[in-house]
Amino acid sequence: MSDKPAGSTAGRIVLTGAKLIDREGAISGPSTIIIKDGLIAEILPGDGSGEAAPKLESVSRLGWSPGDRVIDCRGHFISPGLVNLHAHSPMNIFKGIAEDVTLEDWFNREIWPFESNMDGDDVEAGARLAVAEMLDYGVTAFADHYFEAGRICDVALETGIRADIAPTLFGMAGDFNDQLAAAEELIRNRNGEQGRLSLRLGPHSPYTCSPDQLAMCAESARSLGVGAHLHVEDDLAQIEASRELYGMTPMEVVSRAGLMDNPLIIGHAYWILPEERVLLKENNWIAVCMMTYMKLGYPPGPILDDPGDLPLCIGTDGAASSNCLNPLEQARLLALAGKSRQGNAEAFSLRTVWRMLMRGHDALPFGTGRLIPGDPADLVVWNLDLPHTAPAYNPLAALIYSGDARNAEHVLIAGDFVKEDGRLKLDTKSIVREAKERAGGILAKGKGSTKLVF
Ligand SMILES: [Zn+2]
Questions:
Q1: Distance, CA 85 to ligand 1 centroid (Å)?
Q2: What CATH number did the domain enclosing 348 receive?
Q3: Average pLDDT over the chain, rounded to an integer
Q4: For the chain: N or C, fewer Cβ within 10 A?
Q5: What is the pTM of this model?
Q6: Tally of structural domains, the chain
């Protein structure tokens, strides 16, 4: 399928004859996309075979040369890359370690005790495993939230994925000021690195950080010119506990602290109440991670009843609660849960859910998410002619209800192939081997004592 001339890396990439799926879910084409210097240089109409087609001769008129890489994409679809707007990538190393347990046990008896014995090498191995998984699914950017965040920055740059990383801050751990100072230093040193890294502050949540600590984060984020990323309201019980403690809902606590005045990624808000919606401001985004809510047995949240004009995006959460970092799978579960909850097959339509998948680009500062000349070439070439997705009468249905990593034939980030002809550019065997070795070490160390209580 690919025609790779020798020494093609310095030339252009020409993706001929694919149909295009834009951020609204509209399908057009076929078209030919020319990529140069990491950007979409041109989009020409035609499929390479008809009258209006930019056969390679016409591409040649525009300066095509044997050094260019030309890929026949006829019959395929090209969309902007997928975004995972809420992850804890190192937790891939815990996948399957705490199953069929309550939320309280999941935190207090399993995850936090194991995490307390985790070191930087474990973090790095888990993050590398997660990035390999995400690239396979066509994820070109993700927003992460974890400690040892510098190690995750290293993994992102090494693998080529775009990453928005929030060093996690726990208020109840007793050394909050030190954590904040370290996070500020990391942000100052690495924000914007190579155009692929963005950093922001990561207070864990209003139930593990005090209102004063959240206000310190808001002030720090403002002075650093960055945003924040935290968890809010995944469950009704958190709202009730906050009302008892502060006389306010968690969303009101976050708003009062000033965090909503800055760019803000809110993990979950599954239980955002109708009266809290007015608190959200421009550049506040909600990452819905449906598999976590279903697996941990949360009662159905109000966003299923009425998503309204909430700025919903798709996240996966960490693999310890969600097991799967495929945004398409999470979008699928959200659509199904919403239709089921409302008893309405027209709710959470394919277009609506696709827009949620694409909206994650707006929440991140990379300028990606559109198929227009001059924008970064962060793209997925989808092959839907596979047994589980053909005949794809409706490409959005094929992707959202049936799609998986097998369909992501080529994945490009800033014009670089991170997956080509269905194969990742990473050494997945050694990544899996390293993760298994680290996982064995974690089990051998066992559960430590944690200063955290849920
Ligand atoms: Zn989370």
A1: 10
A2: 3.20.20.140
A3: 92
A4: N
A5: 0.94
A6: 1
Residue 416 located in a structural domain = no
Distance 317 CA to ligand 1 centre (A): 5
Which position has the higher pLDDT, 32 or 10? Answer: 32
At position 263, the amino acid (one-letter code) is P
> Cα(320) to centroid of ligand 1, in Å?
10
Amino acid present at 2: S
pLDDT band at 62, cuts 50/70/90?
low
**For the chain, how are helix, strand and coil distributed in percent, rounded to 5?**
45, 20, 35
Residue 199 domain boundaries: 82-363
Cα(76) to centroid(ligand 1), Å:
34
For range 167-188, the mean pLDDT: 95
Q: Are 201 and 452 in contact (CB under 8 A)?
A: no
**Amino acid, res. 92:** N
Which pLDDT tens digit goes with each residue over 385-424? Answer: 999 999 999 999 999 999 999 999 999 999 999 999 999 9
Q: How confident is the model at residue 21 (pLDDT cuts 50, 70, 90)?
A: very high
Three-class secondary structure of residue 408 per DSSP: strand
Is 75 a member of any domain? no
Q: With respect to residue 254, please indicate whether it lies within any of the assigned structural domains.
A: yes
Q: Give me ligand 1 centre to Cα 78, in Å.
A: 30
Q: What is the mean pLDDT of residues 126-154?
A: 98
For residue 435, being part of any structural domain is answered with no
Distance from Cα 442 to the centre of ligand 1, integer Å: 21
Q: What is the dihedral of CA 378, 399, 390, 44, to 10 degrees?
A: -30
As beta bridge partners, residue 281 has none
Listed residues: CB within 5 A of ion ligand 1: 267, 317
As a whole number of angstroms, the distance between CA 233 and CA 251 comes to 7
Q: Are strands 379-382 and 312-314 parallel, antiparallel or unpaired?
A: unpaired
